[in-house]
Design a protein that fits this description.
The complex is a heterodimer of chains A (96) and B (353). Chain A has 96 residues and is of the alpha+beta class. Chain A has three helices and four strands, in the order E-H-E-E-H-E-H. Chain A has a domain of 54 residues: Alpha-Beta Plaits. Chain A has a two-stranded antiparallel sheet with strand order 1-4. Chain A is elongated and about 45 Å long. Chain B has two domains: 184 residues, 3-Layer(aba) Sandwich (Rossmann fold), CATH 3.40.50; 160 residues, no CATH class. With 353 residues, chain B is α/β, with parallel strands linked by helices. In chain B, the strands form three sheets. Chain B has a four-stranded mixed beta sheet with strand order 1-2-4-3. Chain B has a two-stranded parallel ribbon with strand order 5-6. Chain B has a two-stranded antiparallel sheet with strand order 7-8. Classes of the chains: A alpha+beta (96), B alpha/beta (353). Chains A and B meet through helix 1, helix 2 and helix 3 of A and helix 4 and helix 14 of B. The complex binds iron/sulfur cluster (2 copies).
């Protein structure tokens, strides 16, 4: 299943890529594939902005504005003026 | 089946390998009947949050210095699914303090994260417990963990295992190789079904307020509240409201791939429109009330369906923000116009207009 197209904040900078394959290992939607000695994007629109790839790329070849794709969390963030958060902090109720 | 599982458990394991690892507590791979029941309650109630295990190092089976180390969240349900998947294996389980939250959510929040992992590796003196430098973390924990930093600070290399703990055995047997399929998150009808109680419960709470309000408004007369009128005139709206909740929280999530368009707000609106239409066929309702119904209920269903973005595994923040940018103003004006319509009908009913 795919969500909206052309919205993801995912950015990939092949010049910095060393081909370590971490991004391919961590992405739950197979957005990254190996193409020769470097990573490449297969289908950007499948990205859910979880941030796993960027956090695990030791070479800074990936940037993404990671966050929760959750309406309640985002409305929460709009109301409080903070970062979107699902309210499942240290004490609050259930989440996601 | 539950019973036999429970029986198996009546002779608890424990303390057998306490000598080999004084720091670790032993756990069984089997679930008790009690745990089956707790998991069920966990799915349907707010219990999820406080359902936690103590962070630290555990053993499953009889692990030694060469055994694998698996990392888990301290949400008891995640931990239980992991230990059951490890049945028959001799391994270490390193439980992080994620405040009782599952791996995926905790990774997003950073509690299933680099710092916590480094801290637990230190606290459990993992380098003395095992002689190798491998730890296996769930792939869905990757958003919180920078593997290269963990390796820099502790020497342990993080391997990301399969998304689903039930694939762990295959992963280990294949020589720590995940297949492409093990790495992908799936979102089956079953996955969606177990999530719907969490959609229904908050929606039902708002619905109860809505039903009381409708009853009050419909029964309201210049002379006071007439109970009989409240019931007679309110019931169709209470019924349609219930349909909207069902459509948004249950039907749309279940039929997600089959409802047209990608936007959840649009999906919920379309499903709501269809069900309002079907619902109206079965009740007698005046024309102005039908106008109100076709405006209000599909929007309510759309709003509820949009909440399901929080449960899915493929909606990103930018996408949901985009939806909210166009949907929120529509919800607000829809709610406002619905309210004006209602006041208008009431005044007409009282003969004031
Ligand atoms: S993790 Fe970074 S360096 Fe490694 S393959 Fe992916 S983009 Fe390239
Ligand atoms: S942010 Fe998540 S979903 Fe998007 S490419 Fe990176 S790992 Fe994949």
């Amino acid at each position: 299943m795919k969500y909206l197209t052309n919205v993801t904040s995912l950015g990939f900078f092949p010049d910095a890529c060393t081909g370590c394959e971490r991004c391919v290992e961590v992405c739950p939607h197979a957005v990254f594939v190996m193409s020769g000695k470097k990573a490449a994007l297969s289908d950007k629109d499948r990205c859910m902005e979880c941030g796993a790839c960027a956090r695990n790329c030791a070479f800074g070849a990936i940037a993404v504005n990671a966050g929760v794709g959750c309406a309640a969390a985002i409305i929460n963030g709009m109301v409080t003026g903070g970062k979107p958060s699902c309210g499942c902090g240290d004490t609050a109720g259930e989440c996601c | 089946m539950l019973k036999s599982e429970a029986k198996k458990m009546s002779s608890p394991c424990c303390a057998k390998n306490a000598a080999t690892a004084p720091l670790a507590a032993a756990v069984s791979s089997d679930w008790t009947l009690r745990e089956y029941l707790d998991h069920f309650r966990c799915r349907i109630s707010g219990l999820r949050m406080r359902y936690a295990v103590k962070p630290g190092l555990y053993t499953a089976g009889n692990p030694d210095k060469n055994s694998d180390v698996f990392v888990s969240a301290n949400y008891k349900m995640s931990f239980d699914i992991l230990r059951r998947s490890l049945k028959g294996m001799n391994v270490w389980i390193l439980v992080l303090d994620t405040k009782g939250i599952n791996v995926w959510c905790a990774a997003g929040k950073g509690t299933f994260g680099t710092d916590e992992l480094i801290k637990r590796i230190g606290a459990s003196q993992l380098e003395n417990v095992v002689s190798h430098k491998r730890i296996i973390a769930p792939q869905l924990g990757a958003p919180g963990i920078a593997a290269h930093i963990v390796q820099q600070k502790t020497g342990f290399r993080v391997y990301y295992g399969p998304v689903d703990a039930r694939d762990i055995r295959r992963y280990v047997e294949a020589g720590y190789q995940t297949t492409e399929e093990m790495r992908r998150v799936k979102f089956t009808v079953w996955d969606r079904l177990v999530l719907t109680p969490m959609e229904m419960i908050p929606a039902i709470k708002i619905y109860a307020i809505y039903a009381a309000l409708i009853f009050f408004i419909m029964g309201l007369k210049p002379s006071g509240i007439i109970f009989k009128d409240g019931l007679a005139n309110g019931l169709p709206f209470i019924f349609l409201g219930f349909l909207a909740v069902l459509t948004g929280a249950l039907v749309t999530p279940l039929l997600l791939p089959f409802v047209p368009f990608r936007s959840f707000a649009v999906k919920g609106w379309i499903a709501g429109l269809v069900f309002t239409f079907l619902g109206i066929q079965n009740i007698s309702i005046a024309a102005p009330a039908a106008v109100f119904s076709f405006l209000f209920f599909p929007l309510a269903s759309s709003y509820i369906a949009l909440q399901f973005t929080g449960s899915t595994v493929f909606t990103g923040m930018s996408g949901v923000k985009k939806e909210l940018r166009f949907a929120l103003p529509i919800y607000m004006s829809g709610a406002f116009i619905s309210f004006v319509l209602l006041v208008f009908f009431k005044l007409k009913e009282w003969g004031i207009l």
